[in-house]
Amino acid sequence: MTLTPQQRLATYFHVHLVSDSTGETLNALARAVCARFENVLPIEHIYALVRSPRQLDRALSDIEEAPGMVIHTIVDDQLRTALEEGCRRLDMPCIAALDPLVSALSRYLGASITSRVGVQHALDNDYFNRMDALNYAIGHDDGQGGQDLEQADVVLVGVSRTSKTPTCIYLAHRGVRAANVPLVPHRPPPEKLFDLKRALVVGLTVSPDRLVQIRKNRLLSLKETRESTYTDPEEVRDELVRARRLFERQGWPVIDVTRRSVEETAAAVLNLMHGGHGQVEVLG
After folding, report:
1. Mind listing the pLDDT tens digit for each residue in 259-275?
2. What's the whole-model pTM score?
């Protein structure tokens, strides 16, 4: 009998991520690539800020003990050569993750490549803008700081557990000042929400069944077992209907987060910001 990919056991493998900077870019790239394969689960070994032969030797020692794929973003020529030779000696595949893209861009621009390490993390205006946006998102989470919502680039509105907070935090890392306002049963939203001139207001919705499941899981994590209207299917459905009616009355664009990751929801918000306001339905 031939097993389908879904029926096969997951394949675990070691992946060694070697970076002379924070490793964030490399880690995100590796996860994005691994996500393209069914039932493949990487065991990640991250070596960040590798900038000396001694640090590289420690990494190679670990690689020898746990054989697997080696992916790197080393800029320094000597360290890069030492890593590649070490992997060749150990018979390990070694991939320079950014080389194809950097080379293609260099040819297209006719520009030379910088050898500065971690240049993408320089403390420039973008960095401080992201930190400011993150502070704003934290200070305006769950309806806090309602008096200065006008300072937001975007305000997310939705019932409890519709991914408002993680989406705002993700947007903040992109430099977007994002606030969120919860829709609580029998409590009107703040009046300021309806007077915003600059900020884009986006409604978040989700399927009733999915929301009930999320809320039940949340209560279980809090060891809360008492019955509550918070997870009652009829009450949840009514909450969502009232929220949708509010979105429609206000002409706010709506994003269905039922089948969306936080990253996908944030991308949809960014698309709305770049494409203008108006009544828009973004399906899950």
Report:
1. 999 999 999 999 999 87
2. 0.64
Please answer whether residues 190 and 143 qualify as being in contact, where contact means their C-beta atoms are separated by less than 8 angstroms. Answer: yes
Using DSSP's 3-state secondary structure scheme, residue 97 falls into coil
Fold of 125-282: Rossmann fold (3.40.50)
Q: What is the chain's percent helix, strand, coil content, to nearest 5?
A: 50, 15, 35
Share of the chain above pLDDT 70, in %: 87
Fold (topology level) of 11-120: Rossmann fold (3.40.50)
* 75, 115 contact by CB (below 8 A): yes
Pair 197, 240: CB distance under 8 Å: no
Query: Which of these, 55, 54, 43, lies nearest to 19 by C-alpha position?
Result: 55
- The domains of the chain are located at 11-120, 125-282
Place of tokens 């979105």: 247
Residue listed under structure tokens 């200065």: 148
- The long-range contacts involving 265-270, CB below 8 angstroms and separated by at least 24 positions, are 265/163, 265/167, 265/204, 266/167, 266/170, 266/171, 266/174, 269/154, 269/156, 269/167, 269/171, 269/176, 269/178, 269/202, 270/171, 270/174, 270/176
The rounded distance, in Å, linking the Cα atoms of 143 and 186 is 15
**Local structure of residue 217 (DSSP, 8 states):** H
d(CA 98, CA 102): 6
